[in-house]
Amino acid sequence: MTLEFIPIHKDFGAEVRGADLTLELSEEAFSEIYAAYFRYGLLLFRGERLTPAQQAAFTARFGEPKIAPRKQFNVPDQQEISVLGNLRAEDGTPLAFLNRQGVEWHSDTAGNEDPDGITFLHAIEVPRAGGETMFCSMVAAWEMLSDERKADIAGRKVLHSFNHHNDKVLRIGPGTARPLTPEERAKYPDIWHDLVQVHPVTGRTLYFASHNLVKAVTGVEGDPDAAESWIMELIDHATRPERVYVHAWSPGDLLMWDNRAMMHSATDVGPYEEDRRIMYRSSCRSVFTGAERVAD
Ligand SMILES: [Fe+2]
Questions:
Q1: How far is the CA of 156 from the centre of ligand 1 (A)?
Q2: Residue 168: Cβ-neighbour burial (10 angstroms; 0-12, 13-18, 19+)
Q3: pLDDT tens, 234-260?
Q4: Within-domain flag for 293
Q5: Which one of 140, 179, 210, 296 is at 20 to 30 Å from 39 when CA atoms are compared?
């Protein structure tokens, strides 16, 4: 198997050609893909038709698989795979997790003590138009800051709060969020992350913040809205159009990305309400250190 890595954006990302992920990869091919994953931050495989079991096996080669907490949307006999999209049973019961928030830049599970290391997303059915996923590099974003701004943000900490985020989504209106019980809320303590981090594998500097979860930033006075506005400037900087790759999905595409080094966002669901969109998602732990839980 000869692998080729074709860059897909000036800042990050490569399409991998010559791999067939339905077959078990040799150690040599796996090592090449593993190194390219860290180098490019995002890898695209096309024309794959992985079963949930095959995707779970591929995921597990990169690290310990994580199980998504919304268990009703996980594949029954393959819990490592969760189903995203607008699939519904005949009686209207959702059979997949649908994010209706539109553009919302984030790293997956940024509010956790142990955020996802790698996310894998495999397109099973895609709408005729819409449903794209967008990506940007937090390494490139850091590099493009002025020296003054770098000095200003270095050393700060960001408080990520899943509960704060969930409360905000509930206030927006009916969607996929639901009120959490006190026991559930206790499972998601607020977590401080270093805003500026050095990637433990690549050694590259980046910044890590998911704005919708931000409740406070060290050195920023005021309420959570003030902290979020302060962070939004950094998000806007990272997501300027020329720094974003927009992936228009074809069935069989599989994307995997480094959640520490990248942010991503869904796009509005409106344009494809009439069509089906079904994606298999998996994730695994990878090198992710430096989080600090807020004492109860
Ligand atoms: Fe996500």
A1: 24
A2: middle
A3: 999 999 999 999 999 999 999 999 999
A4: no
A5: 210
